[in-house]
Write a structure and sequence with these properties.
The chain contains seven helices and no strands. The chain is mostly helical and 150 residues long. The chain has one domain: N-utilizing Substance Protein B Homolog, Chain A (Orthogonal Bundle), CATH 1.10.940.10. About 7% of the residues have low confidence.
Amino acid sequence: MGKRRRAREYALKMLYASDVGQFKEADECLSQFWTLSNNCPDDIKQYAETLMRGALGHLQAIDAIISEYIKNWTLERIAPIDRNILRLGIYELLYEALDEKIIIDEAVEIAKKYASADSFQFINAILDAVNKKYRCTVVEEKVIDGGCKA
């Protein structure tokens, strides 16, 4: 497994723990998480923390985007693992200078590993729709705060 995949999986686990109420603050979550995962290389830790803090920092905007695509559902009805895979994927699509195909593929593969059997299809469909609506060309490896709208 590649370093970025490991970092994404760590970020997902931290987002999940935060989401289900295990931790109140990001710093508390990080501290406890890294205490339990003390053999993680620093570069993976750093990227995982960037993803986790980024997704939490834009949580309100990300959740609003997810809500656009879940007609007749509420965000709370989505399984917590699926919800956090979506949050992570949307954060990367809008705020990280990475290829969208890689982002979506990574989210789908993580969903296949951690979520229920059919969740990867749901996650793929939403991330693909978000990509088509919100993703823009990344200029100078930065996306303006708030993402891009077509």
